[in-house]
């Protein structure tokens, strides 16, 4: 994500903003509830062709497996601005101001969008939904007002909060980090912001709470005491866990790994780094991971790598379902449209029995050239259909049982004899020496990668 363009107190002259304030005002005129239309043609863009919420796949409905969520920051605060160019996206209800009235309009537009999409969850940063005030107190009061409206809209529409998070990276005070800032004053500010963030998460019934360490890292090792910073980061989590328990907030804490951008190096580099951090500080039972595949590829891994690794350690809590452009090499936050990628992710979700209370959050933004209002819908619909196809293909793979059988067979030497002894941790180096003396050189067993790839393609 990077759509935290500054808001201006502009008096944009186009657009009739007041008309959106009227009771029952419609933001997306001409776009109705998105239907599931099996067999819809290639040009029919405002229909689901694969995502059929109530269809049962391997014992659960698609809706239960996929738990889609729309993120507020990209879809309702994204402007299309990039480091080289100005905003391109006009949202007729948004006057560009940093006012409560504008924040409320955006929120009502948001809930109409979620409802028309039939998506049951949303996510936000504190500062996306509500303007930062001139003091922490004023920011808190703004957030109270806006979350009163959010609560009302959640009740009215049945849309729930997958997770909330605090923006601890956009404001200049956080330029050297939040919990890893060398200045304790900034640490304290971030802690105070998270305290309020947790109050609000509880108020809205958030099922999780995310920590993305955007500036928890460094630009230069010359001026950084990395051990002190990591110790402080752990302390920050301990304080947040204590407060969460104190107020009785039951959402799951999630760290979202990312290797770089905006920092040159971020401490939450990738899944295994975060797992090591959590275990080092005894936090592994309190915090899970929110994996964003675009970050995984930025870390130099393949798309599904961190989803697989986090799940292997029972730490996969949720997924920011997006994709990058590996040929560009930064966090482009595109909608996931590649069926193979979606299949690999959904295979993990099926294998671990689901992702709840996490979900698939579309931390994605339309391209700055995708300027039609309709593109907001088309992008999400396409990603949901891709994930639904991924789910169906993954179910075929698991139910077909062929690939799982091959993998099981590949490790079968650990089921008996010396292998079983090794697996149980009962073998010594002497035992292995004796085994090799008796059995000689091991056979050269093919890894059969191309055969596996062919089998995967058979299902896709
Ligand atoms: C940025 C992250 C961010 C988190 C929430 O790259 O993906 O959007 O998901 O702070
Ligand atoms: Ni991202
Ligand atoms: Ni993300």
UniProtKB/TrEMBL annotation:
Enzyme Commission no: 5.3.1.5
Gene Ontology biological-process entries: D-xylose metabolic process
Keyword flag rRNA-binding: no
Keyword Transmembrane helix in record: no
Matching SUPFAM superfamilies: Xylose isomerase-like
Family to which the UniProt record says this protein belongs: Belongs to the xylose isomerase family.
Protein name (database record): Xylose isomerase
The species this protein was found in: Littorina saxatilis
Source taxonomy: Eukaryota, Metazoa, Spiralia, Lophotrochozoa, Mollusca
């Amino acid at each position: 994500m990077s759509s935290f363009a500054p808001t201006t107190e502009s008096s944009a002259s186009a657009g009739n903003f007041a008309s959106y304030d009227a009771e029952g005002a419609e933001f997306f005129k001409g776009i109705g509830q998105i239907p599931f239309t099996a067999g819809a043609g290639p040009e029919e863009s405002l229909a689901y062709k694969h995502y059929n919420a109530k269809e049962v796949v391997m014992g659960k409905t698609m809706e239960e497996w996929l738990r889609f969520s729309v993120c507020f920051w990209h879809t309702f605060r994204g402007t299309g601005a990039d480091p080289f160019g100005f905003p391109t996206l006009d949202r007729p209800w948004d006057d560009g101001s940093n006012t409560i009235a504008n924040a409320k309009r955006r929120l009502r537009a948001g809930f109409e969008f979620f409802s028309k999409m039939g998506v049951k969850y949303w996510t936000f940063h504190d500062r996306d939904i509500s303007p930062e005030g001139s003091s922490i107190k004023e920011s808190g009061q703004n957030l109270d007002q806006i979350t009163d409206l959010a609560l009302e809209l959640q009740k009215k529409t049945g849309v729930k909060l997958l997770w909330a998070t605090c923006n601890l990276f956009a404001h200049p005070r956080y330029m050297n980090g939040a919990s890893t800032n060398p200045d304790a004053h900034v640490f304290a500010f971030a802690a105070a912001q998270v305290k309020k963030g947790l109050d609000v998460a509880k108020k809205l019934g958030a099922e999780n709470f995310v920590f993305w360490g955007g500036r928890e890292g460094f630009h230069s090792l010359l001026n950084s005491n990395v051990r002190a910073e990591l110790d402080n980061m752990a302390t920050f989590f301990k304080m947040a866990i204590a407060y969460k328990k104190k107020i009785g907030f039951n959402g799951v804490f999630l760290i979202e790994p990312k290797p770089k951008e905006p920092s040159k190096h971020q401490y939450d580099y990738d899944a295994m780094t975060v797992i090591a951090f959590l275990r080092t500080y005894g936090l592994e039972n309190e915090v899970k991971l929110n994996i964003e595949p675009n970050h995984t590829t930025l870390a130099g891994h393949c798309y599904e790598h961190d989803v697989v690794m986090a799940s292997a350690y029972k730490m996969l809590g949720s997924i920011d379902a997006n994709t990058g452009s590996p040929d560009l090499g930064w966090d482009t936050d595109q909608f996931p449209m590649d069926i193979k990628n979606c299949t690999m992710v959904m295979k993990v979700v099926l294998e671990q029995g689901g992702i709840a209370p996490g979900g698939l959050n579309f931390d994605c933004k339309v391209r700055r050239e995708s300027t039609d209002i309709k593109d907001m819908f088309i992008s999400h619909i396409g990603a949901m259909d891709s994930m639904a196809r991924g789910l169906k293909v993954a179910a075929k793979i698991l139910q077909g049982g062929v690939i799982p059988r091959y993998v099981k067979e590949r490790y079968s030497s650990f089921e008996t004899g010396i292998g079983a002894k090794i697996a149980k941790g009962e073998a010594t180096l002497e035992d292995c020496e004796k085994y090799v003396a008796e059995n000689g050189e091991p056979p050269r067993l093919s890894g059969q990668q191309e055969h596996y790839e062919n089998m995967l393609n058979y299902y896709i």
